[in-house]
Amino acid sequence: MPKPLLSLVGAGPGDPEMITLKAIRAIREADVILYDALVNPELLQYAGANARVSFVGKRYGCHALSQQEINELIVSSALAYGHVVRLKGGDPFIFGRAAEEIEAAAAAGIPVNIVPGISSALAVPAGQMIPLTCRGTAESLWITTGTTRHGSISDDLRLAAQSTATVVILMAMSKLGEIMDLFSSFGKTQTPVAIIQNGTTPQEKMVTGTVRDIVFKAEHAGLENPAIIIIGEVVRWREALPDIIAQSQKVERYEERQAGM
């Protein structure tokens, strides 16, 4: 009989190199891999030859499986085959519904292993040299979702809009206009905003602006999910560094040329 085990594994923000050694080891040892929409498919190359690999991703308005169906698949797969790796984009505990899957496994008597991942909420802004905290500018940080499970804007955003903290919002492009209206209602029309789509990947796109004009700019650029919204003065700090950014890009291009030689 197989020995059941559930490993919740963070796949990182999109760049396949931004995954931990422990996560790679778990993927290699898995009997079953259930992976999400935001997982870079390149990571599946680490799967064993006999591993059963299934896509169970969810995107806005399009779910391959419901969460209840995923929970049931985790349990049935672990009992039938053994080690199930639930591979999730970013970190499993940052809006990854990890708690629900742990509860389902625990109810079936299946032990659970956690492999944390690099969250897109932190890595994507960092990749664009946006410091989410900065002494004298932002001493704290909010990480929130754009909508609740009922489809409405989170009440936490109303509190965040009144603070001086940096606000990072995930899964919120469908509510971008409403969110900017909320921040405007608290006198934040000139607060800088950055939106980064497909962060840490070759398809990355970024638009910056203010609460007043970011909706127009995002629409003009065709930005959509998956994207990270950053609201706060730290975005202005980043925009003041064109020379440093240009220099870093030159170094990056040089390293790419050297690697291709």
Task: Provide the descriptors you would attach to this structure in a database record.
single chain; 261 residues; alpha/beta; five-stranded parallel beta sheet; five-stranded mixed beta sheet; 9 helices; 12 strands; globular
Question: What does this molecule look like?
Answer:
- The protein is an alpha/beta fold.
- The longest helix is centred in the last third of the chain and has 19 residues, at 242-260.
- It has a five-stranded parallel beta sheet, sandwiched between helices.
- The chain is globular, with a radius of gyration of 20 Å.
- It has helices at 21-29, 67-81, 98-107, 120-127, 155-160, 176-185, 214-221, 234-239, 242-260, and strands at 5-10, 32-35, 52-55, 58-59, 62-63, 83-88, 112-115, 141-145, 166-170, 192-197, 205-210, 227-231.
- It contains nine helices and twelve strands.
- Helix 2 (67-81) crosses helix 3 (98-107).
Brief overview:
With 261 residues, this protein is α/β, with parallel strands linked by helices. It is built from 9 helices and 12 strands. The longest helix is centred in the last third of the chain and has 19 residues.
